[in-house]
Amino acid sequence: MSNLSRDDVAHVAMLARIQLEDHELDRLAGQLDQIVDWVGQINEVAAADVPPMSHPLPLVNVTRPDEVRPSLTQQQALANAPDPEGGRFGVPRILDEE
Amino acid sequence: MTATTDRTVPYADALTRYEPVMGLEVHVELSTATKMFCGCATEFGAEPNTQTCPVCLGLPGALPVVNRTAVESAIRIGLALNCRIAEWCRFARKNYFYPDMPKNFQTSQYDEPIAFDGWLDVEVPANEAGEPPFTFRVEIERAHMEEDTGKSTHVGGATGRIHGADYSVVDYNRAGIPLIEIVTKPLVGAGDRAPEVARAYVAALRDLLRALDVTHGRMEQGNIRCDANVSLMPIGSEVLGTRTETKNVNSLRSVERAVRYEITRHAAVLDAGEKVFQETRHWHEDTGITTAGRPKSDADDYRYFPEPDLVPVAPSREEVERLRATLPENPAERRKRLQGEWGFSDLEMRDVVNAGAVEVIEETVAAGASPAAARKWWTGDLARRANADGVAVTDLGVTPAHIAELDGLVTGGRLNDSMARQVMDGVVAGEGTPTQVADARGLELVQDDGALQAAVDKVIAANADVAEKIKGGKVQAAGALIGQVMKEMRGQADAAKARELILATLGVEG
C-alpha cells in the first residue's frame, strides 16, 4: 500500500543526520516500507469519526503553578559536558566553512 | 563569506512598479517567574547555566509540565488580538540540529495553535513627507506557544559571528523561557506606507502586550523580537513574489528601515529580470542593510510531530471568558479616551505618549492636578531635569501627589511659576513636600497690595517714556515694566497681578 522509496529514506536520513551506505538504503527502504504498511492497517479499521491518538492517556490540561523550583548548580549542569568553558557548554563548530 | 553590497533602486521608484507584501512574525518572551515546561527561574542576567534542570537540559527521562500562567497569558494575548481560542490543541516537536536547544528539538505548536484568526487595528501616524495618518487592519494568522532557545557565543574567527567561528559555547538559562509567536497574514495594500505599517504594528503590539502585563516588553533586551518577511508583486499582479525573511529586527526604527531596504533590494533584483532568492537575511543596524543568511531549503523540514510527553491543552469556554474579563482597555483606545478627557491637542498627546508619560499624568490628574499642569510638569520641567541627569522622569523622586500639591499652591495664589520651579528644585533635592519646601525657603507671593502698588508707582516714575507708550495703546510694552516690578519685589510677586496694577495705574484697559 505505501510506497516508501529509496530516495525518501535517503532524505529522512539526511534530516536526521544519519549517514547510510548504499546497501543500507536498499535494505532499509524495504523494511521501512513494510513497517509503514503495517501501521497503515489502522487506517483500514478506523473510520473518519475516530480521531488520531497522540497520547495513550485521555488527559488534558495537566499544568503546574508558576512557582520557582531549585535548579541544578552550574557544576551539576556541566558535570557531563566534555568541553565546558566559562560556565558554558562547549560545542563543535556549528556551520561548515563555505 | 564575502559581504557584497547588493544593488538597490530608489524607494519611490520601486513603488511605481511593485506592491510590497509583508508578513510579520513577532516573538514575545513572557514575564512568568518560571520556564514553560519546568520550574527553573527566568531571571535575566544570571550566571551562565545556573537556571537549568534536567527538563530544560534535555536529560534522558526528564518530563516537562506546562506552566499554567504561560497558557493563561497566551490565551489573554489571543483574546486581545481578537483571535479565536482553540478548544483543544497540542504541542509539537520541531526537530533541528543547532545546539541552542540541548534536546535537539524545540517544543512548539504546529498545526494546532492556541489562538488563531484575529486582527489588530493599527494607527499609522502622519509621516515626514506630509502623508496623513490612517488606520490599517493587521490580520493575525495565529499566536502559538513555544519556548526560547539557549544563548550561543561564537568563539574564534574575525567577526564573532557564527560564520568562521572555531567553536561555540552555550548558556541554557534562556532555553525554555515561554515564548508566544504571533504571525500575521500577508499584509497587502499599504503601498509606500508598508514600512510605516510594520513599525506601527510592532509598536501597537508592544503597547498591547505591556498593557496585558504579560512581558517586560523591552525590545533592546530581546523580550520582543521581530522577523520581517517581505516580497514584491508587480503592480496589477495578484501572484505573491518570492519572500525573504529578515531575522531579529529588534527596534521599532529597525523594523521600518529593514522592510524599506528589502523593498529597494527586491525591486533591483526583479528589475534585472532575476529571481529573488528565498533565504533568511541578517539585519545590520549600523549600515542599514541586510546580508544573505541561510537558504530556505529541504533542510527546513523540521519533521514536526505531536509532543508525546505533554497532554493537550483544552481551555474550557468558561475559562476563556474568565480570562477575557481580565483584559485591559486597548492602549490605542485608552489614549484616545484620555486625550478627550484631558483636552490635549494631537501634538500635545503625541509628546505625552512619546515621553511615556500617559500613566504618570493619569495618576497626577487623579491626585487633583489640572491635566494641563500635569502635562507641563512631566513633559517639560521634569523631563528636562531627568534628561540632564540621565534618569527616567519617574526616578526623580517626584510623585504625582507632589505635582498635585504644587499645582494647588500655584492656582491658590501662593506661588508664581518661577517660585514653583524653585520649589521643585527643593522637592527634587529631597527637601520634602512642596509645602514644606516653600515654607522652608520662605517662598510666598507678597499678598500686600500696598507693597506691590508702591513698586509699580516707582517703576512707572522711572520709565515715563514707556508709560507714555502704554498709554498711547502699546499695551505689550508693559512687559518691560512687569520685569522691573518683579525685580523690585525680588520675585515674590504675582506677575499677572503686577500687569493688572500697571495698566490700572496708567488707566489703560487690559
TrEMBL record, chain B:
Pfam families to which the protein is assigned, alphabetical: GatB_N, GatB_Yqey
Chain ranges of the Asn/Gln amidotransferase domain: 359-506
One MF term in the entry's GO annotations: glutaminyl-tRNA synthase (glutamine-hydrolyzing) activity
EC number(s) on file: 6.3.5.-
Cross-referenced SMART domains: GatB_Yqey
UniProt catalytic activity: L-glutamyl-tRNA(Gln) + L-glutamine + ATP + H2O = L-glutaminyl-tRNA(Gln) + L-glutamate + ADP + phosphate + H(+); L-aspartyl-tRNA(Asn) + L-glutamine + ATP + H2O = L-asparaginyl-tRNA(Asn) + L-glutamate + ADP + phosphate + 2 H(+)
PROSITE patterns: GATB (PS01234)
Stated name of the protein: Aspartyl/glutamyl-tRNA(Asn/Gln) amidotransferase subunit B
Keyword set, alphabetical order: ATP-binding, Ligase, Nucleotide-binding, Protein biosynthesis
Recorded family membership: Belongs to the GatB/GatE family. GatB subfamily.
Function: Allows the formation of correctly charged Asn-tRNA(Asn) or Gln-tRNA(Gln) through the transamidation of misacylated Asp-tRNA(Asn) or Glu-tRNA(Gln) in organisms which lack either or both of asparaginyl-tRNA or glutaminyl-tRNA synthetases. The reaction takes place in the presence of glutamine and ATP through an activated phospho-Asp-tRNA(Asn) or phospho-Glu-tRNA(Gln).
Biological process per Gene Ontology, one example term: translation
Description of how the protein assembles with itself and partners: Heterotrimer of A, B and C subunits.
Organism, scientific name: Ornithinimicrobium tianjinense
